[in-house]
Every structure is written in structure tokens, then in C-alpha cells.
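Reply to dn_fold:

You asked what the input looked like. This is it:
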Amino acid sequence: MGAPNLKSNDYYEILGCPRNADEATLKKAYRKLAVKWHPDKNPDNEEATKNFQKVSEAFATLSDPKKRQMYDQYGEEGARAADQMGDNVGGMPGGFAGFGGRPGGGGGGVHHMSQEEAAEFFAHAFGGGDPFGGMFGGMGGMGGGPGIRFTSSRGGGGFGGMGGDPFMEMLGGGMGGSVRGMGGMPGGMGSVRHSMSSMAPKAYDVIPQGTIVSLKGLVNAAIHNGDRGVIKKYIPSTKRYVVELEDEDETLSVKPENLLQHVHVHIHDIQSQPELNGKTGTVITWCPNKGRYNIYVASMKKVVSLKPGNVILENGTVARLSGLESRPEMNGRWGTIKEWIRDSNKYDVQLSASQVIRVKVENMIL
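and this is what came back:
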């Protein structure tokens, strides 16, 4: 696939797909872009919202054989003509009724998909699966890759309950080649050679190999902000992670502060919305200005904004100490969550082979 061009008006160029792309290729491109630009992953970002609408509109048209044929022959007006015939978008669970505010879209001139229509289409496209919680797979129901769970690369067991996640599939095999450092960032490094050997199992301050992450806060390499990847290795000498990007041939070497972990969590003690308690979800972003996580709850097909004190990280998750007033020197250190103590809503956190501390849930931040 080519690089997506979100400044283009051509649906194929928007998705970065050739005009002869098959359905699986189109689906894969849409999932990657829709997750990257989803408004709930990019709060208060007007550009991200517009991009989300644009990629959704492109895939909504090209995923339907009749609309795609009309688009290939006559462009957007041809696709809208197919809309007016009342055809649903092909293959979408439950049937998506097009865009334009009425079944099949329709209306005079060219109508572009609204944010609400894009969100509805996104929900239909992924069904009951968790599009934020995995990568390197396809859309719902597409098999082929070895399934993984985040807890498979960590010491502790999970809360469970996420079953049926069609996106927990990974590329088989290792990956050689160069590591492209983020040279534009302070302390950036050049290309180095590396092996993809496993990380030391007893490094309690290291995010586990196999964890799915998004890149954030990159400066000169800002084009990669929002891109997802999987951690392949930690390099102690540079204190950076080797991250294999989704659908890319190269890996990147990035600092811990430029990573957001998409881990599974357990929702706890929500007084205003008790129906959320006991649900599991996937972290899709952290909003520092609000001090909240945006959590995608697949079973409810919705995103909720929650304080850290109501978000229980799985045993084995590596997170950062923050907001400790009694021991401020500990803030910024990373540790592995050993156990959640429900009665006090605290974690036992392993900092080293010989040091375990107990802190409030809200003091461990991804």
C-alpha cells in the first residue's frame, strides 16, 4: 500500500490503496486510519475529526461493490447516485444506511459524511470487537494470525472478559533491518543495528515486549504521532524502546514518554454510572489537561472518560509513579503492578527484585 493522502479528494488516495485493492486491503487501511484519527483518541482536535470523517466516507463507498463501481466510473456523483438507489453499505454488520441523514444518503449535490455518521459507520464496521485493542490483523471475523493477549507477555493474569476480540492478531515472525531513531527529538539517535531478542524478564521498570502502543509527542517526526506499533525490545544503554510500526518495514527507537500503552483495564467504583462497574475496556488515550483516560468499552460500543482512580490496570502492567506527595523523589519511576488490593484501592508495585511499595491506584499512570 502507498502512503495515505488526507489532502486528496480521491478515495483510494485517502486510504493509501491502489485502485485494484481487494476488500481485505481496503479494510486494513481503514481500520488503521480510523483508529489513528478517531475523535475519542484525539480530543479537541478538529483536524483529527475531519480526517476521521474523510477516511470513513472513503471506506463506506469503496467497501460496497455497487458504489465502488459507480465511483470508479463517475466519481463522487456516481457514488451518490448509488446511494439514492437505497443500497446499504455492503458487508457492514447490521446494515449501515449510508450517509446524508436518510437511508441511502441522497440529497442534491455532494454530501460529505458528518462526525455522527462517521462514528455510526465505525461502530457498524467493527461490530462488537475492540478496534483499539489490537493490531496487525483485519476487521472482525478475519483470522489467520496467531492470537495474543496483553497478559501473555506479562507476569500476572488478566481480568478476562474481553473475549471475541478480532484484532488481537500479530504479524508472524521477527523483523530485521535498521532502527530509525527520532533524530528530530532532543537526544535523537541515528540508525543502529539490533537483534529482536526478548527483553530481560526481571526488568520491573520496562514495558513488556509485545505491548501495543501509540506514538505521541514527537517533534520533528510529528507525522508519526498517533501511529501504532508493538514493542519489540528495550535498549538499556539508550533508555529507548524499539517499536515495530503497524504496516511498516522499519522500526523506530523512541523514549518512554513518547509511548501510550493500549492496555486492557477494569472499571471500578463509578458512582454516577454503576452499569460501568466490572466492565473491561481498552485505554485509547490519556488527556493530561483533564487528568482522565478515554476508555473504549467494547461490550457497550462506547468510549468513557474516567479518572485514574476508577481505572484498574492489570497485574503485570508497567506504569509510572505520579503525584506522590509523601515521597516526591519516587515520582517518575516506573514499576510493575504486582497486585491490586480492592479494599483500599491500592496497588503493590514492584520497583526492583527487592523493593515493593504500596500506592494509591491514582498514583500509577501509563
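Helices lie at 11-15, 23-37, 46-62, 65-74, 76-84, 115-126.
Hope that clears it up.
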